[in-house]
């Protein structure tokens, strides 16, 4: 039976692989899990990157795609002069702000927006609107951490994505 990996999530594929291997082992009288997809398999870990690194790599590729799609090479600051009025754009805004709050907490998210305005990624009006959206977030983060360079690069991807929707 052929399984198309695109039809399943990663956990489901791992379960299928384990079940297949276990059924093979039962025919030989063995019950141990010899799945090549188990987490402690050194062959599986060789080319594996942490999920956060893979996500950031994917986001940076998207940033390059957004940049290469521009018809003219005159990308100027501020990159995001206004927030798009589309539902999809609002979803991107909420995802971005949720990322900032869950990673760094409410105060650091506010500081990040101010920083992005200072370096010219956002206009004053966009920063103000984003702060208004941010006031709607009430989640307390147990262990907030400082935002690092990768987090700011991911924010730049969100800015580019929103700028492409205007």
TrEMBL record:
Classification via InterPro entries: Arch_fla_DE, Flagella_assembly_related
Principal subcellular localisation of the protein: other
Entry coiled-coil feature ranges: none
Keyword Transcription on entry: no
GO biological process: archaeal or bacterial-type flagellum-dependent cell motility
Subcellular location as annotated: Archaeal flagellum
Region (Disordered): 14-37
Keyword Membrane included in the entry's annotation: no
Residues annotated as domain Archaeal flagella protein FlaD/E: 77-163
Segment forming the signal sequence: none
Keywords tagged on the record: Archaeal flagellum
Membrane-crossing residue ranges in chain numbering: none
GO cellular component, one term: archaeal-type flagellum
Name of the protein this chain belongs to: Fla cluster protein flaD
Organism: Haloferax elongans ATCC BAA-1513
Top-level taxonomy: Archaea, Methanobacteriati, Methanobacteriota, Stenosarchaea group, Halobacteria
